[in-house]
Design brief:
It is a single chain. This protein is an alpha+beta fold and 439 residues long. It has twelve helices and 23 strands. Helices cover 29% and strands 26% of the residues. Bound molecules: shikimate-3-phosphate.
Length: 439
């Protein structure tokens, strides 16, 4: 699907959103589950696996490197691990599709293999910065060639002896942290990563679950090479980032009430919840529990009038993927919402600050864009045409705008929604959206 065009038409609705929804499995955890299960000794069963194009591309990459991965049912994978040194050279290039997580984590992991490998991606991924992983990995002894500007495709040269590193990340990035830790599994001595602000710790938690000794606290992780990964089962919770669209939609459509079940509530992911609550949102957590070692809860969201806020800068890394949805909440809010310290949004699947600012302006909302954020002046959304720039989260966010606009919102280039949220349009229409696909 990715690459092909798909136009969505989102029509204003007169009725509230209602229902109980289960959104698909967490993308970050699904990528990591395939990777660690592939490198483990024994067979791991993954449940709740995200059937998105990104995570399927990661599974395909390991199949290409000789790992048997069965799919006994949708959202299930049985991975027959080959051990830390059991991967084989792939035939041809490994295609990571649209997935920055897939490419950056694989770069770390492949840096220590005995074979060479070329990682390629789609048009969006081919514009994303890879120096942030290449530099620390090179300091560990890796040999990786990129295109001009540090862009993909990447040629990762095998048979390099890696040594541990004590590295302080210049930007808060779970992908860079994870790439270094995965290379560290193969390195001589200790690898330590320190972050300017704590980011999602799924790699650390999952390494521990697969039996690798690792010490970690928020903002720091330390491990040593030379152990083994032991197969374990992984039960993937629902993706908070996918739930986020419904949290915003129900907040802004009068009379709405939605229940989102068993949503992953890792505190490094739920910054949007805090931001929305500061804006006046009515979101309750119920049935708090644990799934696969992660906190989960049902989220009950009811419509509430929102007011503009200054988004606390310390929340930015904990809601890094949720800014497109936050921009829609801000547009619907009373007053101004100020975002700062979010320059990383410029190097996501698209330049999200530019894409959201341009899209909101096309719907009649005033936005002042800055290098690291924007001020969104809440107001009345009109109809109009949006270019999603092939970015799944931009497309889904503007489908929410369509619910409350005074006219129809057309969103171009939506095929990439399948990278993270297959079935979004059907699930959304099931609770009251009026979203039509135009091929
Ligand atoms: C991810 C980390 C974040 C996030 C991405 C998934 C991960 O990227 O935006 O969607 O799974 O580690 P950065 O590491 O670039 O911040």
């Amino acid at each position: 699907m990715s690459g092909s065009n798909l136009l969505w038409v989102s029509t204003p609705i007169a009725t509230p959103l209602r229902g109980t929804l289960r959104v698909p499995g967490d993308k970050s955890i699904s990528h990591r589950a395939i990777m660690l299960a592939a490198l483990a000794e024994g067979t791991s069963h993954i449940r709740g696996f995200l059937e998105g194009e990104d995570t399927r591309a990661t599974a395909r990459a390991f199949a290409q490197m000789g790992v048997r991965i069965d799919s006994p049912a949708p959202s299930e994978r049985v991975v027959h691990g080959v051990g830390l040194h059991g991967l084989r050279a792939p035939q041809g290039d490994v295609d990571c599709g649209n997935a920055g997580t897939g490419m950056r984590l694989l770069t770390g992991l492949l840096a220590a293999q005995a074979f060479d490998c070329t990682l390629v991606g789609d048009a969006s991924l081919s514009k994303r910065p890879m120096r942030r992983v290449i530099e620390p990995l090179a300091r560990m002894g890796a040999h990786i060639d990129a295109q001009e500007g540090g862009l993909p495709p990447l040629r990762v040269h095998g048979a390099q002896a890696l040594r541990g590193i004590d590295y302080t990340l210049p930007v808060a990035s779970a992908q860079v942290k994870s790439a270094i830790l995965l290379a560290g599994l193969y390195a001589e001595g200790e690898t330590r990563v320190t972050e300017p602000h704590p980011t999602r710790d799924y790699t650390e938690r999952m390494l521990s679950a697969f039996g690798w000794p690792i010490e970690f606290t928020p903002g720091r992780a330390t491990l040593r090479g030379g152990h083994r990964l032991v197969a374990t089962d992984v039960d993937v919770p629902a993706d908070f980032s996918s739930a986020a669209f419904f949290l915003v939609a129900a907040s802004v459509v009068p009379g709405s009430e939605l229940r989102l079940t068993r949503v992953g509530m890792n505190p490094r992911r739920t910054g949007l919840l805090q931001a929305l609550r500061l804006m006046g949102a009515d979101i309750r957590e119920e049935n708090a529990g644990e799934q696969g070692g992660e906190p989960v809860a049902d989220l009950l969201v009811r419509h509430a009038p929102l007011r503009g806020i200054e988004v606390p800068v310390e929340l930015v890394p904990d809601m890094i993927d949720e800014f497109p949805a936050l921009f829609i909440a801000a547009a619907a809010a009373n007053g101004d919402t100020i975002v700062r310290g979010a320059a990383e949004l410029r190097v996501k699947e698209s330049d999200r600050l530019a894409a959201m600012s341009a899209g909101l302006r096309a719907l009649g909302i005033a936005v002042d864009e800055t290098p690291d954020g924007a001020t969104i002046h809440g107001g009345r959304l009109g109809g109009g045409s949006i270019d999603s720039r092939g970015d799944h989260r931009i497309a889904m966010s503007f489908s929410i705008a369509g619910l409350i606009a005074t006219g129809v919102v057309q969103i171009d280039d939506c095929a990439n929604v399948a990278t993270s949220f297959p079935g979004f349009a059907d699930l959304a229409n099931g609770c009251g959206f009026a979203l039509t696909n135009v091929a």
